[in-house]
Amino acid sequence: MAMITCVATSFAQKKLVLYFSENGTTKTVAEEIQKQVGADIEAVEAIEAYTGDFQATVQRGNKERESGQWPAIKPLKKKIADYDVIFLGYPIWYGTYANPMVTLIKEQDFAGKTIVPFCTFGSGGLNTSSADLKKALPKAKIEKGYGIRTARVAKAAKELNRFLIENGYKKGSVEKLADYSEQKPVTAAEKALFDEACSSYQFPLGTPETVGKRATADGTDYKFSVKSRGMDGKEATSTIYVTVEKGAKAEFTEVVR
Length: 257
What we know:
CATH class of the largest domain: Alpha Beta
GO molecular function: electron transfer activity; FMN binding
Largest sheet: 7 strands, mixed
CATH topology of the largest domain: Rossmann fold
Order of helices and strands: EEHEHEEHEHEEHEEHEEEE
Strand content: 25-35%
Domain Flavodoxin-like: 15-194
Number of helices: 6
Low-confidence stretches: none
Structural class: alpha/beta
Pfam family, one: Flavodoxin_4
CATH architecture of the largest domain: 3-Layer(aba) Sandwich
Distance between the termini: 33 Å
Cofactor: FMN
Number of strands: 14
Organism: Xylanibacter ruminicola (Prevotella ruminicola)
Radius of gyration: 19 Å
Helix content: 25-40%
Shape: globular
């Protein structure tokens, strides 16, 4: 069994977990990161708090984005300048980081800092939000991030242990994951597995065409190439990751568009 062992080259660097959480989900992930790496932690808070009601947040968020009048936030107690590595956390709104983070990025100087994004989402958004962070913070070093579906947040501790060790933020060893197999046409059984994994999601995610897979210590991971139609009606291709743990139902972990 191949293992990845980390001696945590960044262990001596000073770390801060800085996050915005509307309803507590991102806070759960933030506190787990803080616990595992021994970082300082602080929440980003909007002066006019969001209610946690989905429709109310959508309406308010739309107005903020359309007007460019981003929400005012409370002053930070921690000083960005005092830290080397900043774990920057947020829920995904509109395919990217939540609106209060726009204000944070405009107000704070992240030049020269190592930024590790982490996010919670309904279907995906880690890749798009990370790309947006690179554009917004060209003088910072944006590293590989971590994301998890809100529906799976109870599994964050185990996933974060792997992520933090693999990327050098925590000492320890984890089993090295195999590469996915070559993509092949989806069988009827694999289509049924995909449908089961996506059945609880409120929107159709498309039709799987090809799939690669890999065995893990806990079960099997699948990487589906999926055809769907976007909001504009145009055909699009996405990658949807599905995991099946031993004795458990299939669940999708992320959509990458």
